[in-house]
Amino acid sequence: MRSKAAAQLLLADDFTNIYNMSGGIIAYHGGKAIGAETQGMEYFVRQDFADVFQMSYAMEEGLRQLYLALEELVENTEAKELLNRLARFEDGHKAMLKARFPDSATGEESGQVESLEGGFSKQQILDHFRNNISDLESIIQLGMMLETQALDLYTRLSRTTEDKDSKAFFEFMAKEEKQHLHFLSNELDNIGI
Predict the structure, then answer these.
(1) At 177, phi and psi to the nearest 5?
(2) Under a CB-based contact definition with an 8 Å cutoff, are residues 62 and 125 in contact?
(3) For position 148, which CATH number holds?
(4) pLDDT (tens digit, 9 = 90+) per residue, 9-35?
(5) Contact between residue 142 and residue 133 where contact means Cβ atoms under 8 Å apart
(6) In terms of Cα–Cα distance, which of 85, 191, 189, 186 is closest to 136?
(7) What are the Cα distances from residue 88, in Å, to 61, 101, 106?
(8) Quick one: which of 77, 93, 121, 155 has the fewest CB in 10 Å?
């Protein structure tokens, strides 16, 4: 998943011939990898505001739910506190989205969602990381991967939208994701990694 985030950032900066193997290095058994993985690489088909709001809101809510679900799985108090703080970051983003798209906010956005930032489902990530989230370092690395996905999403939206106000909003959201990455990077430094 980290390589998928890296591939997306490279593609967003106009690099070509970027490939990401499905399943990562763990899935590689000596065969020759062919083709590119494209699932989840493009988030939107249209740039219509209601779609942007619904997709962004669903992914922010999905990530909030994921952090809270991970919090239930860990026993370490520091890890629980970190995951709860990350969930609150997503609450802040949802509030910003509602403020920016008031006509799209119906009040029914807080249900269970399947799509997270980056195109993965909550269950896919839980299944993949269930046995690898026992310590603070692995949780921080997972958070960094997911926040990188979000940074890529908002950066791409800011580049493709023609509406000046929306462009400014998506640039602001990208800066927020950079701040989250900075926060997580500091947390990683604090545990001596």
Answers:
(1) -65, -35
(2) no
(3) 1.20.1260.10
(4) 888 878 888 888 777 666 666 665 455
(5) yes
(6) 191
(7) 10, 20, 21
(8) 77
Give the tens place of pLDDT for each residue, 66-124: 888 888 888 888 889 999 999 999 999 889 888 877 777 655 454 555 556 555 666 77
Q: What does the chain come to in residues?
A: 193
Q: Which helix (H) or strand (E) holds 4?
A: helix 2-12
Residue 191 burial (10 A CB sphere; 0-12, 13-18, 19+) = exposed
Tokens matching residue 187: 């947390």
Write down the pLDDT at residue 87.
93
Residue with tokens 């896919």: 124
The total of structural domains in the chain comes to: 1
β-bridge mates for residue 115, sequence order: 121
Q: Is residue 117 part of a domain?
A: yes
Supply the DSSP string of 82-148, one letter for each residue.
HHHHHHHHHHHHHHHHHHH-TTT--S-TTS---B-TTS-BHHHHHHHHGGG-SSHHHHHHHHHHHHH
Domain membership flag for residue 52 = yes
Asked if the structure places residue 11 within a domain, the reply is no
The structure tokens listed for 105 are 């906010």
Q: 120 is in which domain, residue-wise?
A: 43-190
Instruction: Write out the two tokens for 16.
Output: 């070509």
Identify whether 160 is part of a domain.
Answer: yes
